[in-house]
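Reading a protein record of the kind used here takes little practice once its layout is understood. Each number in the token line that follows is a code from a learned vocabulary of backbone shapes. One such record is shown here in full, so that the layout can be seen directly:
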Amino acid sequence: MAASSLSLSPNPTTFTTSPKPSFSPSYHTTRLIKFPNTSQTPTNLIVKPLTTHSPRASLSSIIPRATATPSSSTTSTAQTSFHGLCYVVGDNIDTDQIIPAEYLTLVPSNPAEYEKLGSYALIGLPSSYTTRFVEPNENKSKYSIVIGGYNFGCGSSREHAPVALGAAGVAAVVAESYARIFFRNSVATGEVYPLESEGRICEECKTGDTITIELAESRLINHTTGKEYKLKPIGDAGPVIEAGGIFAYARNTGMIPTK
């Protein structure tokens, strides 16, 4: 509201007020913003939901990137499994032990350097590990499954850690728990499946045991000992790893344009 103006008369005790200014009706006219009529949806517009499948259903068609041998059923709903020898480590395996910093100059996007990166996987383990994960002059490990304890992948945030394991031929890591950044990097790169156990499987399995992992059933079978163990479901991370990483998943689901 506009304030009334005051003027002083020669007598300071007398004040006169000027009348309030008059406004034309157009001043108070409401200004409307007209939006286009969207009541008719174009026929060529197709809306796709971000996810249209459950993680458990999608795991039935996983094609692992690593070299673990998948076993499949003859039915159309075959469940993918990882089968191979396991390599057992303990608690607090950090990223310096998985891939020492001196090898971070290798560029994973270069195929030759990616293969070389695999040859150095777990080379930083202490001398108490008498069995080498990757034999000298080899790029691949004969162990396609790594079993660990508590806080696997702690330390730095280097994404080379899961990449090195994947390059060495690891299909999955099974640990009691993970450092959060290693788990996220595993999913983002799509190199390995970071599976969590419900107990300390690392104390009941030995390096060289023959292992099968049933992803859809969240189950680990040790064929050497005849024991089975329950795993925690991989959940929503499964389809991302299945696609080959976060960017491949985003392209497949239409979140970002395909090349």
